[in-house]
Design brief:
Elements (H helix, E strand, L loop, with lengths): L1 H18 L10 H6 L38 E10 L5 E10 L2 E6 L10 E4 L4 E4 L1 E3 L11 H4 L5 H8 L2 E5 L3 E4 L9 E4 L12 H30 L14 H9 L5 E5 L2 H14 L3 E5 L7 H7 L2 E4 L21 H7 L4 E3 L19 H10 L4 H6 L3 H6 L17 E4 L10 E6 L2 E5 H4 L31
Parallel strand pairs: 1-4, 1-5, 6-7, 10-11, 11-12, 12-13
Antiparallel strand pairs: 1-2, 2-3, 5-14, 7-8, 8-9, 14-15, 15-16
Helix pairs in contact: 5-6
């Protein structure tokens, strides 16, 4: 009986190998039963089976942003070139804002949420709002909510120049037209010190104050150790810390930075030596001769607020280099000095001398490029760098998710003298519209860069009768 079973099994195996036909006794494939007892048969030459064709890949879904709450306010800017400043440039990108904050930055076209306000900015450029390190007249003094004129022309002109935030001397404030809400970003103050070699008495008093405050801080450290052993240890007296001593204490404890005006290399060296000796942070305004020895600023860890077009004549009585240089910005940048660019005039001037005030802040940065500064660094010097120096880089200065939706849309490259701001947004709302304000609407109204210059001027069109 066993012999017959073996014979039948061999015949069935022969049939399976040479005919490739399955035999299914009792609902199971016999080949499965045989495979448990022997190796699978080798595939014959010339009978290689073709792999099934790969399934077609599904078409990528069109990205769509869906509003999570009907009460949310969305703004979508699409079709423009997005210059994030800190995260690269996206051509034909999409910027999505939600409730006054940047919600999403997409390197390509996407559909916005239902009910969103959509602006087609094809052919335009989007930059973060410019940050003016210092200004006069653009916003109110002190607490701007209590001193600002919401319909002041200077505010509108500042927005037309692309500026959306500035420091008014005590607070970093936004430029908002027609409203007094949400103006202040953050209080900010610098410490002013005078260490000029022209004032030897003041220099001596400042050094004595720093020595005394430094010793007081060391006494506080010793007291902290003593208090661990004796909880009733008496703290050093600090009632005398007022005036210059209070200023020095804020510097030495890192609560503030020194903001000094220094133009010559001699002044820069004096202030830098003082900052290194006592260990405080310093910001130089001017620094026209910084190019002569940029390592001094770099070793001090100083920042520089410069005006590339500021000019200082060389002193012919000296046997060393002196005076200003158009390459000052480039040399300081190469040495690792953080740069902020500011015009010589920090207000808005309408007397015809264009380019010397805040109405042409990007033009000042363009002159730094003329001196060799990389274009990207020049843009950073009027956006993210002043924001960092003012302590508000977490909210403004670049296009980043989570930051305030403060940005501008221009009709060309930011550093071109031909470029105009088309829209300015603050907190996700339009604060300036070139076609609506009536200030610059007569210049290339259709965005044609080759259009001839207009033959009329704001605020009165030529030929219109004067109104008495």
């Amino acid at each position: 009986m066993l012999k017959k079973i073996r014979t039948i099994t061999a015949l069935l195996a022969f049939v399976i190998v040479f005919t490739d036909m399955p035999v299914i006794p009792g609902g199971y494939s016999l080949s499965e039963s045989i495979s448990e007892a022997q190796d699978p048969p080798r595939r014959r030459r010339g009978r290689r089976r073709q792999a099934p064709p790969p399934a077609p890949e599904p078409e990528p879904e069109k990205k769509e942003i869906v509003a999570a709450d009907s009460e949310d306010e969305y703004l979508v800017i699409r079709g423009a070139t997005l210059h994030t400043v800190t995260g690269g440039t996206h051509r034909n990108g999409t910027l999505i804002c939600k409730n006054g904050k940047i919600y999403q930055i997409v390197a390509g076209p996407v559909d916005g949420p239902e009910g969103a306000e959509v602006i087609d900015a094809t052919g335009h450029h989007v930059y973060p709002g410019l940050v003016a390190f210092r200004s006069s007249g653009l916003v109110g003094s002190g607490e701007a909510e209590k001193s600002q004129d919401p319909f002041d022309l200077d505010t509108t002109m500042g927005l037309a120049a692309g500026i959306t935030a500035t420091w008014n001397g005590s607070r970093v404030t936004k430029l908002v037209h027609g409203s007094l809400e949400d103006l202040t970003i953050r209080p900010k103050s610098f410490s002013s010190i005078n260490y000029s070699y022209r004032n030897p008495r003041g220099r001596s008093e400042l050094r004595r104050a720093m020595d005394r405050v430094q010793e007081h801080l060391r006494a506080l450290e010793r007291h902290a150790e003593e208090k661990k052993k004796d909880p009733e240890a008496k703290a050093p007296d600090d009632k005398w810390i007022k005036g210059i001593y209070a200023t020095v204490r804020s510097l030495l404890t890192g609560q503030s930075q020194a903001l000094v005006r220094a133009r010559s290399m001699a002044e820069i060296r004096e202030y830098s030596a003082l900052a290194r000796k006592y260990g405080f942070e310093i910001v130089f305004e001017g620094a026209e001769e910084g190019w002569i020895d940029p390592g001094v600023l770099s070793r001090t860890g100083a920042s520089a607020v410069i005006s590339p077009r500021a000019r200082v004549d060389a002193n012919e009585d000296l046997n060393r280099e002196s005076g200003s240089s158009i390459e000052n910005a480039r040399v300081l940048h190469d040495a690792g000095v953080p740069l902020v660019i500011l015009p010589q005039s920090t207000g808005i001037a309408l007397w015809g001398l264009a380019g010397r005030d805040l109405s042409h802040l990007p033009l000042e940065a363009a002159f730094a490029v003329r001196g060799g500064l990389p274009e990207q660094v020049a843009i950073e010097a009027i956006t993210i760098e002043p924001a960092r120096l003012l302590g508000v880089a977490d909210r403004v200065g670049s296009l980043e998710v989570g930051k305030d939706a403060d940005f501008i849309i221009t009709d060309g490259d930011l550093l071109s003298y031909m470029t105009l701001v088309r829209w300015a947004f603050v907190n996700g709302k339009i604060q300036y519209d070139k076609e609506e304000e009536g200030i610059l609407d007569h210049i290339r109204p259709d965005g044609d860069l080759d259009a001839p210059p207009p033959d009329d001027h704001w605020p009165r069109r030529l030929g219109d009768p004067l109104k008495g």
